[in-house]
Design a protein that fits this description.
The chain has a single domain, classed as Gcn5-related N-acetyltransferase (GNAT) (Aminopeptidase, 3-Layer(aba) Sandwich). Helix content is about 30%, strand content about 35%. The structure holds coenzyme A (COA).
């Protein structure tokens, strides 16, 4: 692949490529606590629950999807609605080429422009690639959930990372949809 990397909004017909990238980590790692890889139809339904309020971005090169990042609600209760949770996955053969950083930078810029006040990443530890990416993007660890996930015959900690996006005014405007 010799073309340029480009970030764009995800489309429903990206679901199969996104499911294929994610399946590798479901099967072979504890990065995600999901145990069975979702198929493309399930992934498309999940994408529908994110867009249009939250950004869902992909990176492609020469028409091949190499990574994706999206945000969602941290928790359901209404008062949490200015805080987003971010997720990023890059195809395992394409690590360390700047794709994760490119996706996260675009995701963070979109969330800030929408009016979210902060963004949180939850990382199964240890995951140096993810913790260093988060720190390179300005996140700081603010918490740790000890041994909350059991997968591959072991219990795993989850680090909570947070990045401030706004000034937290009194009476904040509602976050604007990503796809207005
Ligand atoms: C985490 C992940 C998205 C990083 O994507 P990537 O495209 O490989 O990362 P980038 O090339 O953009 O790296 C950006 C920065 O992150 C850090 N980084 C990323 N991978 C790293 C690694 N393996 N070791 C050390 N630092 C790393 C570096 O600071 C890097 O900047 P540099 O290359 O200028 O030193 C990728 O490793 C991945 O998909 N991992 C599996 C899924 C995952 O862990 N997702 C996060 C769930 S919380």
């Amino acid at each position: 692949m010799g073309g340029a990397l480009a970030v764009r909004s995800a489309r429903r017909d990206d679901a199969a490529a996104i499911a294929a990238i994610y399946a590798h980590y479901v099967r072979n790692s504890v990065i995600t606590f999901e145990l069975d890889p979702p198929d493309a139809a399930t992934m498309a339904v999940r994408m529908d629950s994110i867009l249009p309020l939250y950004p869902y971005l992909v990176t492609e090169c020469d028409g091949v999807l190499l990574g994706y990042a999206y945000a969602g609600r941290l928790y359901d209760r209404a008062a949490y609605r200015w805080t987003a949770e971010a997720t990023v996955y890059v195809a395992h053969e394409w690590h360390r080429r700047g794709i994760g950083h490119m996706l996260y930078a675009a995701l963070i810029a979109a969330l800030a422009a929408q009016g979210f006040q902060s963004v949180v990443g939850k990382i199964t530890l240890p995951n140096p690639a993810s913790t260093l990416l988060h720190e390179a993007c300005g996140f700081r660890q603010v918490g740790l959930l000890a041994k909350v996930g059991y997968k591959q015959d072991a219990w795993h900690d989850v680090g909570i990372y947070q990045l401030e996006l706004g000034t937290r005014p009194v009476g904040p405007e509602e976050p604007r949809p990503f796809l207005a």
